[in-house]
């Protein structure tokens, strides 16, 4: 059994052993369910977009990806796709 202490503003620190075991990272979102009688059930709320974002971020780091190098290429491709779909009309607000 592990004991944790609630600090200011309701902050609870997960023990390093549990963070490592369950691969919990800073910013992780949890669902808390009041079970009654002072008992709570705390479960990670896994959002698919967060999982994909982490995987993409990790892959980009591993490949030494430089976003500044790719932004002009992405912008040009986006422009081409827009023209293919909508013709020569100008996108609003640009």
Describe it.
The protein is an alpha+beta fold and 94 residues long. The protein contains 3 helices and 2 strands; from the N terminus they run H-E-E-H-H. Strands 1-2 form a two-stranded antiparallel ribbon. A hairpin with a 2-residue loop joins strand 1 and strand 2. The longest helix has 20 residues. The chain starts with 15 loop residues before the first helix and ends in an 8-residue tail after the last helix.
Please give a handful of descriptors for the protein shown:
94 residues, alpha+beta, two-stranded antiparallel ribbon, elongated
Low-pLDDT runs of 5+ residues are: none
**Overall average residue pLDDT:** 84
User: Helices and strands: which structural class?
Assistant: alpha+beta
What's the end-to-end separation, in Å?
A: 58 Å
Percent of residues in helices comes to 40-55%
Task: Put the structure in a nutshell.
Helix content is 44%, strand content 14%. With 94 residues, it is of the alpha+beta class. The chain is elongated, with a radius of gyration of 22 Å.
């Amino acid at each position: 059994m592990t004991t944790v202490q609630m600090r200011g503003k309701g902050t609870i620190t997960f023990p390093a052993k549990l963070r490592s075991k369950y691969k919990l990272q800073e910013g992780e979102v949890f669902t808390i369910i009041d079970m009654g009688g002072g008992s709570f059930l705390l479960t990670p709320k896994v959002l698919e977009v967060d999982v994909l974002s982490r995987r993409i971020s990790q892959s980009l780091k591993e490949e030494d990806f430089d976003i500044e190098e790719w932004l002009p290429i992405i912008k040009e491709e986006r422009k081409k796709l827009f023209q293919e779909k909508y013709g020569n009309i100008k996108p609003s607000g640009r």
